[in-house]
Amino acid sequence: MTSYETLLHLAFRDPADQAKYLTPVALGAYAAFERAPRAEQAFRFEQWRLGVAASLLRLLADLGDHDEARRASDVLHRALSTARSPEDIDRQIHKETKLFDQIYTNLYVNEEGEALLDLFAHALDADAPDLLAQVTDEAVDQARQLDFDARNEDEE
Within a 10 A sphere around the Cβ of 124, how many other Cβ atoms? Predict the structure, then answer.
């Protein structure tokens, strides 16, 4: 299993979420990029980036029960699943600009959440496969260290 696939499985842990979000398109985004002819590489790279970014937002949402992050993750996943070009991805995400702004303005996060937001920003800034692969590896490391039970214990 690639780091990308591992990240998806770490982010979408619940069986119902796996059935909904771990689609062939989502799971295959990295492999599709690797196999893509030169003319498709930009689009396939964007799909891979969407999968990484959606996973990071989902981890953030589950870590702190943040509805905005969960909804934004859904927007990214929908774009990953339905967009047919980089321009289509941009169009779909642009419609939800306010939602993405809310993630940063309406969100209190702990150190783990800040680390996830930082990785999310790095994923969006990654403009080369090596950089996105590095973000993916760091995200897997971070996801493996998250303590989702601590949040649940704090609420009790």
Answer: 14
Residues ≥6 apart with Cβ < 8 Å to 86 = 42, 43, 46
Ranges of H-type helices in the chain: 3-11, 15-21, 24-27, 29-35, 41-64, 67-82, 86-94, 97-105, 111-125, 129-145, 148-155
Residue matched to tokens 């990071």: 56
DSSP letters, 35-52, are H--GGGHHHHHHHHHHHH
Classify residue 132 by its DSSP letter.
H
Comparing CA positions, the residue from 9, 45, 36, 44 lying closest to residue 124 is: 45
| Tens of pLDDT, residues 129-144 | 999 999 999 999 999 9
Domain boundaries, the chain: 3-151
- Provide the whole-model pTM: 0.92
